[in-house]
Amino acid sequence: MAPNPSRLAPIAGLALLAGLVAVTPAHADEGSELAPLHPAPTSGNGELTHQVQDLWFIELASPPTSEGTASALVEDEHEEFRAEAEEIGLQYTERLSFGELWNGLSVEMDDAQVTTAREIPGVAAIHPVVRHEIPDHDDSSPDMDTALGMTGADVVQSELGLTGEGLRVAVMDTGVDYTHPDLGGPGGFPTGRVVTGYDFVGDDFNASDPAKSTPVPDDDPQDCNGHGTHVAGIIGAQGEVTGVAPDVTFGAYKVFGCTGSTTSDVMIAAMERALADDMDVLNMSVGSAHSWPQYPTAVASNNLVDEGMVVVASIGNEGASGLYSAGAPGLGADVIGVAAYDNTHIRASGAEVTQSGETIAYMEMDDAVLPPTSGETDELVYVGRGCLAAGDELEGDPEGRTALMVRGECTFGEKYDAALAAGATGVVIHNNLPGMFAGGGIVDQGAFAVGVSDEAGAHLRELLEGGGPVTLTWTGEETTIPNPTGGLISSFSSYGMSPDLDIKPDLGAPGGLINSTYPMAKGGYATVSGTSMSSPHVAGGVALLLEARPDLAAHDVRGVLQNTANPTAWWGNPDLGVLDNVHRQGAGMLDVPGSILTTTALTPAKLPLGATEGPVTESVTITNDGEETATYAIAHAPALGTHGDTYAPSFNDTYAGVAFSTDEVTLAPGASTDVDVTVTPPARDHAQMVYGGYVEVTETGTDATVRVPYAAYNGDYQEIEAMTPITDANGNVHELPWLTRITECSVFTGLECADSNGGAFRNQPDGATYTMDWVDGLPDVPYVIAHFDHHVTRLEMTVVDERTGRPVHPDRNLAVSVDHVNRSATSTSFFSYVWDGTVVDSRDRVTDVRDGDYRLRARALKALGDPDNPDHWETWTSPVITIDRG
After folding, report:
1. Distance between CA atoms of 740 and 764, rounded to whole angstroms?
2. How many whole angstroms separate alpha carbon 127 and alpha carbon 107?
3. What's the whole-number average pLDDT of the chain?
4. pLDDT the model gives residue 141
5. pLDDT tens across 224-259, in order?
6. Which tens digits make up the pLDDT trace of 803-825?
7. Which single residue of 21, 63, 442, 836 has CA 20 to 30 Å from 577?
8. Gap between the Cα atoms of 193 and 251, Å rounded
9. What are the CA-CA distances from residue 784 to residues 75, 580, 821 (Å)?
10. Residue 690 burial (CB < 10 Å; 0-12/13-18/19+)?
11. How far apart (Å, rounded) are the C-alpha atoms in residues 851 and 374?
């Protein structure tokens, strides 16, 4: 008999992650590989990580009621599943059931039960219930004005008189501090601004802590974390901070406790509540990275748009993990997925460099002691990175002095601890990339720690190299400084495309170093960075647009915003004057007045061309919504492409050729015309190329330009390998997949001690015998661990009888059956799949296989692969698995 599944759950993990007029195209032979002036942050440090899962969505066959299915039929399907599950002995605990926006249930269930559940009649798919961590934040002083100016929201308020009045915006987040004076407080809930809402989990809830993972809902959505209040302030604060749409009313849907994480099934419950509360716009500054647009939160969000609600979601903060890292629900086909740009200015505390008189800005570091407001620091000494665990030694002696360190390689806390252990009286960490930052993870040891820009760090180090003592004089004053990365894509903002090659993100907004409201109990204001901050800029912009154009349908809002957005220069070297990747910024920076005042529409609003192996022709419709006849010039603006390693992409200006059936059209008021756009892919100078650009339509005699972004994979998309080896931090190559078993270990030896619960996945290249029971407190069952460099449409593992070479129960013998598997989060992370020694037979019964010799034959269907094409499947066969139950 297999070990108790409830005891396997913490250890085993299963993850699903006519004539053409040429328009000056730039061809492949003109392109080159580009290196950024400053390298992008990288994902991880080579540490091998095990991605685990124990909560699941079970999707049932019929569409939800929002798509027209009768509620009685949905209820019957739920009851039929429960009855069938009981009949076959499925071991699970039901959490929540859904029928309005998505049809199915969420359950707690060991991964060994997943394939059994998948075989129950009426089950359409099984997805992981993802845990979402509350994003970290940086603390500083309130300053929203420059961010408003980046999108033109300040102009809309002052010159057009639009404030979002009459619009209801739902904030699904950590709650909202409805007592905040900038959000309508003080007062009890509900208030005149926060008019409705619900707490779905309770303050103590933390989905990552088994002792706190049971929701305890109540009627009070007060925010005890801060993230949701910050988001709400960006949307519509009115007071010391002015939000994008300062007269909207809010619905506060609290899906997080004070700390920790939530789960995606709770998010769907909140979506259904927002629909019942008649919200106009939903902002979700939360998501699951590296996912598929088929994920339940994305599907439910699409159905909200069908119901008339505009849905805006952050695209994710996983830019360091490379391409295809965008997350659901922002991946939803009808959702506005939002990227982040850095704010143009930073308002922060200032200190004077005593020896030069120059004032530098700094930001306090997390929980360290605050720096004084007057006096001088001890003398500075440069000590390098200070990553002792990575083999560094301190380059200087900081005893009795202030340690100057450089960001990178290890955590801020490790740097801080290393400096103080060596006797430092304070720590100044300078950035290794352009711009300011404030780090987290520091535990107070009685000394201050601040972060400064790379430019300030270079100045301090230059003075130190000159030989004289260097100190800082604290002024207690604030300073506003230009942000060197202002207006450029934020380093953390996730890349697209989506795994089905849709263009994601859709557009962007300010998200780096944004100051907004914060709970009064936590100081009232804070600076936070993330796509969590860019999404509410767009949600507020949507409210202003809907106030100006109330007849605009929910499905049409995104198109207007994309038409009028403004793509920005490449973050790696903006002086080159080339546009950043379409699959990083979408249509570009949100332009709120442009969306309201535009008199030209382009449909479709984006052109995802899929995987191209030759010229592709699409049609774009130009409509003159103005009151005068207009002539339009049509042109092409290329954007940079990427190529190479998914996790660390390279950049190139190898552009597509683009031509149009005409390069000029004249349209009477209300008239439309179609223009053919033919895109010729660039030469394949590199592997795994993604390219893109913009179709630009400019009304002659004006500077009013509207755009449609296009993007595509260059070549055969199925050329990307999915199941690949991984290389650890020591350069050791592990030829995954592996047949493994769990054993005790006490020494870290790479992959074999990566399990966080004390056991090690040990490779069994020569096969192994398993008792299917517990041995010395560990489950003695076969596992397969695998790394996926790219998304997988379907993963199957078939049980093959070694005696006959044929599958056991050929029609119903899958040990693993998973749809829409995410790519691995990093180049060294992996998933595990456990086989409990059972199969589902031809009578839909779960049966133990007999003791004997077997192999697991894995098949992975590549993203967008044709299941009938053998070349689109990757296969692997395990060593011999001997089952001896004894």
Report:
1. 5
2. 11
3. 89
4. 39
5. 999 999 999 999 999 999 999 999 999 999 999 999
6. 999 999 777 778 888 899 999 99
7. 21
8. 9
9. 37, 40, 15
10. buried
11. 77
